[in-house]
Amino acid sequence: MNGQSSHVGAAIEAAVKRAEELRTSSLRKLRVRIVTVFEDGRSGLTIHARIASRTPAESRAQAGLGVRSIPWLDLDQRAHELVGLVEDAIAEVTLAVDNAPQCYRLSHSASDRELQRYEQLVDDLGRALSQTALKAASSAWAEDLPRNLTDEATMAAAVRLAALAAYSGNMGRSDAEEELALAIGGLLNRTDEKPDPRSLN
């Protein structure tokens, strides 16, 4: 029994080492987990590989992939497969990400007329969302919640809404981050002249 445990332990150690080698050599942020599972019909050793998604398309492309398992009853006989299973799981998600559709922003290819309406819609939505947020925040202030805490809550809610909109619009993370940086930069420039940001729409 001790010989079997030593054999399996050495195989797991080799798999962990190989996973770390591939993780450090990857050009993308790669996560590999080797976990034990205790569930009816699925008990065993499971390998999960995942590449940090930069776009919604990359996230969808990896759904259900990068998973390999060996049942407990087969582990002693199949322990030698672990390194190969790690490599297979990583290769699978890597290929999925490489083949994921490239994201692009429709606003970058819009006509002049469409772009003008797009900018107007941005302003209209901004005003509507700001008014709704201020109304909700005012209600919180009336309940003696600190104003800086309501400001932080407003920001967190706005970021969550922005993330959902970016995902629905198939916008990449870099584009979403760029929009946020531009919005913060523009607001800071305007507050140099108007110290109260709540007066800005």
Question: Which key terms come to mind for this protein?
Answer:
single chain, 201 residues, mainly alpha, 2 domains, three-stranded antiparallel β-sheet, disordered C terminus
> Roughly how many Å apart are the termini?
72 Å
Label the overall shape: elongated
Binned, the helix content reads 55-70%
Structural class: mainly alpha
Q: Please, how many helices?
A: 7
Question: What is the fold's blueprint, element by element?
Answer:
Elements: H1 2-25, E1 30-37, E2 44-51, H2 56-61, E3 67-71, H3 72-78, H4 82-98, H5 112-142, H6 147-168, H7 173-191
Antiparallel strand pairs: 1-2, 2-3
Account of the protein in words:
This protein is mainly alpha-helical and 201 residues long. The chain has 2 domains: 2-98, no CATH class; 106-199, no CATH class. It is built from 7 helices and 3 strands, in the order αββαβααααα. The protein has helices at residues 2-25, 56-61, 72-78, 82-98, 112-142, 147-168, 173-191; strands at 30-37, 44-51, 67-71. Strands 1-2-3 form a 3-stranded antiparallel β-sheet. A hairpin with a 6-residue loop joins β1 and β2. α1 packs parallel to α4 (82-98) and α5 runs antiparallel to α6 (147-168). The longest helix is centred in the middle third of the chain and has 31 residues, at 112-142. The N and C termini lie far apart (72 Å). Residues 197-201 have low confidence and may be disordered.
